[in-house]
Amino acid sequence: xxxxxxxxxxxxxxxxxxxxxxxxxxxxxxxxxxxxxxxxxxxxxxxxxxxxxxxxxxxxxxxxxxxxxxxxxxxxxxxxxxxxxxxxxxxxxxxxxxxxxxxxxxxxxxxxxxxxxxxxxxxxxxxxxxxxxxxxxxxxxxxxxxxxxxxxxxxxxxxxxxxxxxxxxxx
Length: 171
Fold this sequence. Notes:
This protein is an all-alpha fold. The chain contains seven helices and no strands. The protein has a single domain, classed as Ammonium transporter fold (Orthogonal Bundle). The protein has helices at 2-13, 21-35, 44-68, 76-94, 114-142, 151-156, 158-163. The protein is globular, with a radius of gyration of 19 Å. α1 (2-13) crosses α3 and α2 (21-35) runs parallel beside α4.
């Protein structure tokens, strides 16, 4: 339990060693994203475990993003992508018909592996669909416009280049 609490604190710190507003917001969003697929199917205990697991999964995603140098300034992939994936799969563990009689029991409530396997298959299909559609959209856009700024413009900043004003006034 201590490791999960430490991961939640590290998520709030955003890997900087200090608690930040962005880290706190990312932690809150990560928990909300992870519980969304399970909402209406899990009890409070299941929701608690999904939230704690999301802290670990999302923070690990932030570390991976930094390690591999992904261009994802707000951690959308780490928080939304991995948090939502974890929540969808965890629904197969924590769902219970005592919360929703129209649903199914998850693995931890005696429902066997059927729901868990269905959740995993669903996640794989959605990731595959999202990847393929994103590639198609990017290919289409690249025929009409560049997808990235050049290095000089990146150093100046997209806010100034694209909007004509600075988002931050640093002194």
